[in-house]
Structures are given as C-alpha cells and as structure tokens.
Amino acid sequence: MARCTAPSRGHRTASAAAACPACGGRSRGYSSYPTYTSPYSTYSGNRSSGGGSTRSRKPRWSSPSSAVYYTPAEIRTLEPVRGNIEKRAIIPDLRDVFLCHAWDDRKESAKELHDMLEQNGVSVWFSEKDVLLGSSLLREIDKGLANSRVGLVLVTPSFIERVKNEGIAEKELSALLARDLLVPIVHNTTFDRLREVSPLLGSRSGLDTNEESMFKIALKLSELVEIEETV
How far apart are CA 74 and CA 34, in angstroms? Predict the structure, then answer.
C-alpha cells in the first residue's frame, strides 16, 4: 500500500498533494459536474464570506446521499426559510420558487439559474413565462411569493441599478423579509454593494456566486425546496 508523504514533505500545495502516491489519485468533490466547475473554489476549499468557514456540513433537509455541503452560516440562513417552506407545503398548486430579477438579466444570468433549477426538478415562477411587462418590482415579488413556496432575489449590477433608480419601500420590503420567504443570491456584485442601495435586503444573508458556482447554488436551492410526499 502506498504511503502518504504528508508527514515528511507536506501537502501545502496542490502539486505536492498530487505527487503523493497515496493522495494524488483521490477525486475531489463535484467531479461529476465538470460542465459547471467553479473557477473560484474547490469542494474542500470553499469559504463563506462570513468568517471563512469551510463547507463541511449538511442541513437536516439534505439527503444522506447528497454530495452538497454547506457552511454553518449558510445553514443558519436557510433554516428559517426551510421551516416556512415546510409549513406552506400543505397549500396546493404552488410553484417551488419565484425568481425575482432585473429585466436586463432575463436572457442571461436569470435564465441560467432558471434552467438549472428546472433541470433539478424545481418549478419556477419566471418573468419570461409568468410576469407581465411594466409591472412594479415589489408587486411582482409579492405576487410571486403568494403563488410560490419561496422567493429568490437574483442580485446583479443590473438589479442594483433598478433598485437604486426606482427605490424600494423599506416598509414593504421589511414585511417580505420578516416572512422568511426570500433568499438573496448575489451574482457579479457584492453584499456590501447591495447594502449601499438597500440596507434591509443587504442585511439578509444569502448565497453568493463569488463563493460557489451557479450550478452548486442551484443544487442547494433544489434541496431547500424539495418536500417528500407522504402517502
């Protein structure tokens, strides 16, 4: 049996680990999804934006066979959302998620997330299919949430510009956030930038494509909304 060289040579670099006769051949997490490999992180090295915790845990709603891992902060963020999803599971004819996004993102990042969610069996309320042109942002968020188990807010530079130009009523946004039915997903921007234009929405933790690929985030969201049917 090959011996690990870590005690004598160390594994501080990827090349050192790869040269080890015992460890060099080990597969890394998510190798079964090569099309969507994230350029920002690997399975074992992912770090959250809050405190740098590694992704090594699973929430209670994750199946034992799942290859998706979370930071403690992500689990704390999603736990109350999951609780409300479970409560709303008894309501018939709801979509799994409502995807709120900027109009400029409908053909690109929002469509990408929509397609990944649907590929994982998630039913999505999406502007290209369900939202009338010219409707106000908040009205569509509220309408989507009423007909979905949870709302996703895709926060991009275009979304931030729309929020800044139109303005979001703090009172209305506060009511939506208080229901624990919104999950912000930051893409190509930061939570700090979001807080500059919407302190309330920016104060809510969420998921960030600067930390993980869009595909891995879609996997987490699909786990979040999956409810086992009882016979």
Answer: 24
CATH number belonging to domain 30-225: 3.40.50.10140
Residue 109 sits at φ, ψ, to 5 deg, of: -65, -40
CA dist 87 and 79 (Å) reads 13
Domain residue limits, the chain? 30-225
CA distance 220 to 166: 31
- Pairing assessment for the beta strands 124-125 and 95-100 based on DSSP bridges: parallel
Helices marked H in 20-121 — which ranges? 72-88, 109-119
Measured CA to CA, the distance from residue 95 to residue 56 in angstroms comes to 30
Interatomic CA distance for residues 100 and 169, integer angstroms? 16
Tell me which residues of the chain have a pLDDT lower than 70.
1-53, 131, 137-138, 141, 167-176, 229-231
Which ranges in 72-190 belong to alpha helices (H)?
A: 72-88, 109-119, 127-130, 137-146, 157-166, 170-178
Please state, in angstroms and rounded to a whole number, the distance separating the CA atoms of residues 152 and 150: 7
Instruction: Say how many C-beta atoms besides its own lie within 10 A of residue 33's C-beta.
Output: 14
* Phi then psi dihedrals of residue 3, to 5 deg: -100, 145
The percent of residues in the chain predicted with pLDDT above 70, rounded, is 69
Could you give the strand order of the β-sheet that contains 182-186, starting from the edge strand earlier in sequence?
124-125, 95-100, 148-155, 182-186, 207-208
